[in-house]
């Protein structure tokens, strides 16, 4: 990875400006949590206000001197801005402060670099880092005017900067091809699940809302859980059996954050497509957060960006154990359809209500009834058992079997299609 981190936390000065030109400012508390999640050791937090950013240093001369004094006073090695800086602003600030400067996008990229565990996740992080660094490649070089020359180096006539850009472009192309292969593999998996009519339920929500804790509660998967931002980066999928519905695929996805850098959304598109193609989204919300409405809006913005805003949603208000006298419950709309569930993934309170609500929402696509299967059609009976669709059976004197079934409508139609028009084919009777 491109960021080398020391074993102990780096002493960091945090900078946050309130800009009147920005409609939705960043939350300074979230910024501090991001810095801590990256392993920084904040020594001071500098606030300020401006109508709009200074084009050269973002903060202006007076505030830059205040930051410079804080760096000297605390011996800070790093200054982190809660804003996205242009490459020239970043270079100008570093020149003045004589220490490393990181903006919000660089900070989130560093966190992602630490969290990535799978080969795919590491590729996605590297791609995002390369794209970010491509705009800042000029920094740190003092020999950019020199042409290649000397034994073994004659010929191309490139400056060092041009060579670096070409190598960077080649690496980006290579990673994009490998991620395209991953995307095709994921598409094949999704098509297979669609053919088998296995519904997919994806957990989405703001980072640190408790998605992985809930995922572990429902699946016993042992996914890494910690009270920090972006604890989960790589997607995890598990099959879960629901009492009245049958099998479903539950997917845990990367958490969202306000103003998620666009290059991260692009790099993680293969992962986020799991949410975009889901049958149902479980929007996990930190019910104990004072800012939960804004955070829910931020999640909706990311869902819109990945084309998942119109998918059916079930809101899960998590962490009710932190609320006074809030009981687990299901909120329903005027038609009685579950729209929200209040629970605690840590204690398990209300998780059974969530299973019931998911079953109801997915059950809208299910059919229930009895199928009379002749003895010679034992293969059909075996297929129904493999799909966990059989809830009971009763044999007739002639060897025929009447199966009590609950299964997706598409599965039933597919299994009975070969017998269409046959007088002695299986006989279906829907439940009343």
Automatic annotation (TrEMBL):
GO molecular function, one term: GTPase activity
PROSITE patterns recorded: G_HFLX
Binding site for Mg(2+): 212, 232
Obligatory cofactor(s): Mg(2+)
InterPro entries with a match to the protein in the record: EFG_III/V (IPR035647), G_HFLX_dom (IPR030394), GTP-bd (IPR006073), GTP-bd_M (IPR032305), GTPase_HflX (IPR016496), GTPase_HflX_N (IPR025121), GTPase_HflX_N_sf (IPR042108), HflX_C (IPR045498)
Coiled-coil regions listed in the entry: 158-192
Stretches assigned to the Hflx-type G domain: 199-366
Keyword field contains Cytoplasm: yes
Family matches, as CDD domains: HflX
Subcellular location: Cytoplasm
Ligand binding (GTP): 205-212, 230-234, 252-255, 318-321
Signal peptide: none
GO cellular component: cytoplasm
The family this protein is said to belong to: Belongs to the TRAFAC class OBG-HflX-like GTPase superfamily. HflX GTPase family.
PANTHER family the UniProt entry points to: GTP-BINDING PROTEIN 6-RELATED, GTP-BINDING PROTEIN HFLX
NCBIfam families: GTP_HflX, PRK11058.1
Known partners and oligomeric status: Monomer. Associates with the 50S ribosomal subunit.
The protein's name in its UniProt record: GTPase HflX
Species this chain originates from: Microbulbifer yueqingensis
């Amino acid at each position: 990875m491109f960021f080398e981190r020391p074993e102990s936390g780096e002493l960091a000065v945090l900078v946050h400006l309130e800009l009147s030109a920005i409609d939705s400012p960043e939350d300074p508390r979230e910024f501090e949590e991001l810095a801590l999640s990256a392993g920084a050791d904040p020594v001071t937090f500098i606030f300020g206000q401006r109508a709009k950013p200074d084009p050269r240093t973002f903060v202006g001369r007076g505030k830059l001197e205040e930051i410079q004094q804080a760096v000297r006073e605390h011996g800070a090695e790093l200054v982190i801005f809660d804003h996205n800086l242009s490459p020239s602003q970043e270079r100008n600030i570093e020149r003045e402060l004589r220490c490393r400067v990181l903006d919000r996008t660089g900070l989130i990229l560093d966190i992602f670099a630490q969290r990535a565990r799978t080969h795919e996740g590491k590729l996605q992080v590297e791609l995002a880092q390369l794209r970010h660094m491509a705009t800042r490649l000029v920094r740190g070089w003092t020999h950019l005017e020199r042409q290649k020359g000397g034994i073994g180096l004659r010929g191309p006539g490139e400056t060092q900067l041009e060579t670096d850009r070409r190598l960077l472009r080649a690496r980006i192309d290579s990673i994009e091809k490998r991620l395209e292969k991953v995307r095709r593999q994921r598409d094949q998996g999704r098509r297979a699940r669609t053919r088998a009519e296995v519904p997919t339920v994806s957990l989405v929500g703001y980072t640190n809302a408790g998605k992985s804790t809930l995922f572990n509660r429902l699946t016993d998967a042992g996914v890494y859980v910690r009270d920090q931002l972006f604890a989960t980066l790589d997607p995890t999928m598990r099959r879960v059996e629901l009492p009245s519905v049958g099998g479903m695929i539950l997917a845990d996805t990367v958490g969202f954050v306000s103003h998620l850098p666009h290059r991260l959304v692009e790099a993680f598109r293969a992962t986020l497509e799991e949410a975009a193609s889901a049958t149902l989204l479980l929007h996990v919300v930190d019910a104990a957060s004072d800012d939960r409405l804004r955070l829910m809006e931020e999640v909706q913005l990311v869902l819109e960006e990945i084309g998942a805003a119109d998918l059916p949603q079930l809101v899960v208000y998590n962490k009710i154990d932190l609320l006074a006298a809030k009981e687990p419950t299901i909120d329903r709309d005027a038609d009685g359809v579950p729209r929200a569930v209040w629970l605690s993934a840590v204690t398990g309170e209300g998780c059974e209500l969530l299973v019931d609500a998911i079953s109801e929402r997915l059950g809208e696509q299910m059919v229930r009834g009895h199928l009379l299967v002749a003895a010679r059609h034992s293969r059909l009976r075996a297929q129904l058992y493999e799909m966990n669709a059989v809830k009971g059976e009763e044999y007739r004197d002639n060897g025929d079997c009447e199966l009590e079934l609950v299964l997706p409508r598409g599965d039933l139609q597919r299994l009975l299609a070969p017998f269409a028009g046959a007088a002695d084919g299986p006989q279906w009777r829907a439940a009343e």
